[in-house]
Amino acid sequence: MVGVNLGFIETLKSIFSKAIFRIFLALTLLTIVAAVLVLYFEGQRNPEEYRGIWDSVWWALVTVFTVGYGDIRPITTGGRLVGIFVMISGVTLVSLITATISSIFVARKIREDQGLESINYEDHIIICGWNAKAESIIETLFSLSKGRPPKVILVNELPEDEINSVLDRFRKQKVKFIRGDYTRNAPLERANIRDARTIILLPNLYEHAPSVADEKTLLATLNIKSGYPKKKVIAFIMVAENEVHVKRAKADEVIISDQFIDFLLAGDVVEPGLSNVISTLFSAKSDHRIATLAIPARYKGKTFKEVSEYFKTQHKFLVLGVVAEVESIGVGDFLSSDSSHLDAFIERKLKEAGRTLGEENKTVVNLNPADDYIIQENEKAVVLI
Fold first, then answer.
1. 359 is in which domain, residue-wise?
2. Buried residues in 217-226 as b, exposed as e (16+ CB within 10 A)
3. What is d(CA 12, CA 18) in angstroms, rounded to the nearest whole number?
């Protein structure tokens, strides 16, 4: 709501710029002068219609905006001459106001289409970078979010014809676009990163080699996490060796291209049909897939067996395990409070290794736990739908 209000205020500021303010001032002066003059000419000859200044102002406004109610009309020569002047001047001024306001909105629309206008989405997803998988990722994102489609903003430097084609494809989903280098703050701020839910970093393969694309992903992660440490960042990288660097940059999730291809190929040899099973589970078009669902509050503190029976009987879902995001204890919790030389040495070495003393969040997955496993407060169920 705050973002929408700020956008509305910015639009009003544009409308009431110096040029249009002068036009409104001229229109106000014209109305006042015309009302005084027509009252002077009509006050004695036509007192039943021009009973006071407010009747004259009403007539002037109706004449300026060419409404033509006809409830009040001048009958003297002087009053009619004032009317002619008001009609000609009013048409000119109203036309200027209409043209100025229209040009402001047209210019705003053009800037938005070019990716140069700020977008005031909230709780949205920002997708930075572009590659051959990007459109499929966006399509799958909407396919998996049937109940409540997410708001999506793209941040990249695609050529205008290519990005227009993408936006046309997802016009119903109201996907927006910001042009710029996502390793810099300005484009991300125009995408309202402050109120974003998640930032997805894709390797920019349309203009960079895989290793260089991973470097941009690393730089973007560092930039985002330094300014917005609480924002969830999902990084997609091309080279497995770069995973450790992106994780040190505090990416919440790291996806590696072709990460499971060796398992699928070898698994299909040892266990024929395994790749088809995996493909079915991870297809957005499949009737069955793996998902994480909130566990009802009344089952917190209950056993895994009870939770499994609940999902099986109530939803026909198979529970595979539980997942939780937990805070790991930081090394700083073990250091003394007197800043000894040993503590300073440990802190310095950790920083050199790309580590920090603070607490970090991490995702813990527990598949197929024992039936008597106790469900914790922050855990979700991993289910086969």
1. 295-384
2. bbbbbbbbbe
3. 12
The tens digit of pLDDT for each residue in 323-352 reads 987 655 444 444 444 445 555 555 565 555
pLDDT tens for each residue of 232-248:
999 999 988 888 899 88
Q: How far is CA 22 from its chain centroid?
A: 36
Q: Domain ends where: 113, 135, 162?
A: 113
Report whether 198 contacts 124 (CB < 8 A): no
Strands (E), 204-306: 232-237, 253-256, 290-294
Shared domain check, 138 and 230? yes
Pair of tokens at residue 149: 């489609």
| 99 and 181, same domain (yes or no) | no
Would 375 be classed as within a structural domain?
yes
Q: How many domains does the chain have?
A: 3
In total, the chain counts a number of residues equal to 385
What is the enclosing helix (H) or strand (E) of 102?
helix 77-113
Residue 378 Rama label (left phi>0; alpha psi -120 to 50; beta): alpha
Q: Token pair for residue 242?
A: 């770069």
Q: Please name every residue paired with 380 in a beta bridge, in sequence order, or none if there are none.
A: 294, 323
Q: In whole angstroms, how far apart are CA 337 and each of 307, 311, 330, 378?
A: 44, 48, 14, 31
CA atoms within 13 Å, Cβ hemisphere of 312? 9
